[in-house]
Fold this sequence. Notes:
By secondary structure, this protein is of the alpha+beta class. The protein has one helix at 55-66; strands at residues 6-7, 18-19, 30-33, 37-42, 50-54. The chain has one domain (1-10, 31-68). A five-stranded antiparallel beta sheet has the order 1-5-4-3-2. It is globular, with a radius of gyration of 12 Å.
Amino acid sequence: MTPGTTTNASFVPAHPWHKASYTNDRGACVEVSEGPVTGVRDTKHRELGALFFAADEWQAFLDTAKGA
């Protein structure tokens, strides 16, 4: 799996999926599977697959989102 690519829903990442900590109660939810390759998917449309990022790319996103 190349980081930054999409895949179908049949791909199972090495780590379990969990809802992102910023999930709201209006249905705008994403799930992540963090590890050497981090997956991100929409909880309402899991069948559409996920985006995958290398650990350093994911950390850079988190740092930017937190304003670090």
